Amino acid sequence: MSVTTSPEQDAPETTRAAKPPRSRGDRLFAGVSRAAGLFILLALAGVFVFLAIEGWPGLSAARDTYAPNHDFLSYVWPLVYGTVLSSVLALAVAVPLAFGIALFISHYAPRRLAVPVAFVIDLLAAVPSVVFGLWGARALAVWLVPAQQWLDHHAGWLPFFAGPASVTGRTVFTAALVLAVMILPITTAISREVFAQTPRLDQEAALALGATRWEAIRLSVFPYARSGMVSAVMLGLGRALGETMAVAMVLSASPVVTLNLISSTNPATVASNIASSFAEATPAKLHVLIATGLVLFAVTFLVNFAARWVVSRNERRMAR
């Protein structure tokens, strides 16, 4: 008794048979890529476990360990506030400048000028943070003293410039400008690459319909590059949140919460507080410092999680 099969029944077997086997190089590359991804996850988990184990005793240490505060929350809150404040101020200065430079390089400047400008911007990323710290503490702070005094005299009615202005210039205002210079290269580089990848046909179509160059960029480049722009901003924010030496060298900090950006009383950041207090810390104080590092780890994770959510939401909207 013969059994007949239809072509539809034979199709899956034919498809499986026709699928070429992966080469040894493909399998090796897939294995290396998978191992690299797992290594990153294991390293991240290892950092979290270390911070959690070593920092847990710091959450409930003796009261004098948190001096001049009385518990961990009152100790870490000014540090988180200073970290977020200086990072947001740095973004407010660096992001518009980075987007402008990226657009200039990718759409406006001739190639003979765009290449050197891009090279100089990328070169800033290779400068060590301690060099930025020295420049900010020894040069920029001195240069900004007259500007901060002017803000005190003419804009002192605002809580940000209430004064009295610092005579040394080592303030949150100065630290934010140093951070802005430090995050400028990475934000500019990513934005430039995203702007350059915008389909040329979309821009030419907008120009053909009578749009100006700026209108073509606003209507075709920005919508296409929105997710990349968000990623660039978030990477810059992550760099600013975790910066240590430059802020520690520039900022004359104290455990306070204030909106005044130009006075000599400035909130410290988590990273700079760890760097300045680590060498002389007792074992109990060391646990407290590690616990603040755990808080910074959580803040950075939440910021990156929010950035990925924004990017994925934008991608789904663009795919409709």
UniProtKB/TrEMBL annotation:
Domain ABC transmembrane type-1: 80-307
Phosphoprotein recorded as keyword: no
Protein localization: Cell membrane
Leader sequence segment: none
Pfam assignment, any one: BPD_transp_1
Keyword Transmembrane helix: yes
GO (cellular component) term, any one: plasma membrane
Region ranges (Disordered): 1-24
Keywords from the UniProt entry: Cell membrane, Membrane, Phosphate transport, Transmembrane, Transmembrane helix, Transport
Transmembrane segments: 28-53, 79-105, 117-137, 157-184, 244-262, 286-311
InterPro entries linked to this entry: MetI-like, MetI-like_sf, Phosphate_PstC, Phosphate_Transport_Permease
Lipid bilayer topology: Multi-pass membrane protein
Gene3D superfamilies: MetI-like
PROSITE patterns per UniProt: ABC_TM1
PANTHER family linked: PHOSPHATE TRANSPORT SYSTEM PERMEASE PROTEIN PST (PTHR30425), PHOSPHATE TRANSPORT SYSTEM PERMEASE PROTEIN PSTC (PTHR30425:SF1)
Family stated for the protein in its record: Belongs to the binding-protein-dependent transport system permease family. CysTW subfamily.
Biological function: Part of the binding-protein-dependent transport system for phosphate; probably responsible for the translocation of the substrate across the membrane.
Protein's name according to its UniProt entry: Phosphate transport system permease protein
